[in-house]
Amino acid sequence: MLESALISEFSRFYMSNISDHAIDLFSKIVRLKKYKTGDVLINKGTSKFYVIVEGIVASFSKNSQKDREYIRTIHLENYAFTDLFYQINDLKLAHIDLDTKTPEDYYKCLTSCTLLEGDFKDFIDLSASNHEISLLYNKINQTILLQVLKRLDRLSLLDATDRYKILKERIPQIENLIPQYQIASYLNITPVQLSRIRKKMYSE
Amino acid sequence: MLESALISEFSRFYMSNISDHAIDLFSKIVRLKKYKTGDVLINKGTSKFYVIVEGIVASFSKNSQKDREYIRTIHLENYAFTDLFYQINDLKLAHIDLDTKTPEDYYKCLTSCTLLEGDFKDFIDLSASNHEISLLYNKINQTILLQVLKRLDRLSLLDATDRYKILKERIPQIENLIPQYQIASYLNITPVQLSRIRKKMYSE
């Protein structure tokens, strides 16, 4: 089964010593699916999770007036994601951080994508019944957390030109995947600023 | 034992059905400690973790030239933290996000604090030997991840005045805890911009 080989590769990327048995259980709750550029994967209230086998997926978020949107994160192969905010009541986040509003966020394929899809509840149930899966989930969570912290550090500590260079290094074909105004929003600058940065970089 | 009661409160905040046995194991690897305002808790390469019982702790991060620093996150009671970046090699983060540089980050008490302190390796060992602890760790990770995503959304989608209002709502006494230039850096604006925002707000 192809799912099994792909789940094995994904799981061992995070946890090299995970057993074949755990991989077998994990692969039973996912199936391989193909998506086209522009397909929206997760929207408010769905309970799916995905593992990227091939392609680029971005998460988008809007303000509460819905008149402003930005690209929050951009993900490549071996990344896993779900709509964690969907579970906000469970997590009593309100107590820690006052603001209980669930963001208006969703995930979209920036290229054609091959993904493993499953129900997140099945995954949580599996992590509750299988210790190894729960350890795997810890490793995935740690990595995702570090990535988001790095994104935050870059936004706050690097200037826009350096942020743009890092994005280009990570995804060289980014210019052909998303419009300039979205690249600008990911970099937290205006399209005019981005245009100036590009002009300066390519004239050097 | 006081540690046991505090670990029970902390653990059940995230996972209401965790057993007394798991709490007992967890409380054996921590001890209660008091810290003063300004104490630095985690610095490069330490392997401690902390749970905030009382007080306010902030994480700071510097750029690689070390000429720029900002407050990355501010944490209140029931928050747990460690230097996750310390484990970067384990996590193969490099493969996912190119940039393998560990940030120059540390944690500092903004008020006098009561914390539970333990060795993060003991916690990871415990989560590997006890399934409930690994499930607890997942819940904690999920909550921290949501908080950082919210922080990222606010930086990118809200204007500085709204970000300042949210911070004031969350920590009303913030003005007395950290200097204005650090509040400005948390809000990702200049001290001059912050001063204008304050003047405008308090004249209304």
- Number of E-state strands of chain A: 8
Fraction of residues in β-strands of chain A: 15-25%
CATH fold-level assignment of the largest domain in chain A: Jelly Rolls
Number of helices of chain A: 10
Q: Using the alpha-carbon principal axes, give the shape of chain A.
A: elongated
Alpha-beta classification of chain A: alpha+beta
* Overall tally of domains of chain A: 2
Query: Radius of gyration of chain A, rounded?
Result: 18 Å
CATH class of the largest domain in chain A: Mainly Beta
Q: Whole-Å distance between the termini of chain A?
A: 51 Å
Q: What is the topology, as strand order, of the major beta sheet of chain A? A: 1-8-3-6
User: How do the SSEs of chain A run, as a string of H and E?
Assistant: HHEEEEEEHHEEHHHHHH
The pair of chains with the biggest contact is:
A-B, 56 and 56 residues
| Quaternary | homodimer
Which residue ranges of chain A are poorly predicted, with pLDDT under 50 across at least 5 consecutive positions?
none
Helix percent band of chain A: 40-55%
Task: Outline the structure in words.
2 copies of one chain form a homodimer. With 204 residues, the first copy, chain A, is an alpha+beta fold. The first copy, chain A, has 2 domains: 2-157, Jelly Rolls, CATH 2.60.120.10; 158-204. Chain A has 10 helices and 8 strands. Chain A has helices at residues 2-14, 20-27, 88-91, 93-97, 120-129, 131-157, 160-170, 174-177, 180-187, 191-203; strands spanning 30-35, 40-42, 48-54, 57-62, 69-75, 80-82, 104-109, 113-119. In chain A, β4 and β5 form a beta hairpin. In chain A, α1 (2-14) packs across α2 (20-27), α5 (120-129) crosses α6 and α9 packs across α10 (191-203). The longest helix of chain A is centred in the last third of the chain and has 27 residues, at 131-157. The termini of chain A are far apart. At the A-B interface, β5, α4, α6 and α7 of A face β5, α4, α6 and α7 of B. Chains A, B: InterPro entries: cNMP-bd_dom_sf (IPR018490), RmlC-like_jellyroll (IPR014710). Chains A, B: It comes from Tenacibaculum skagerrakense. Chains A, B: This is CRP-like cAMP-binding protein.
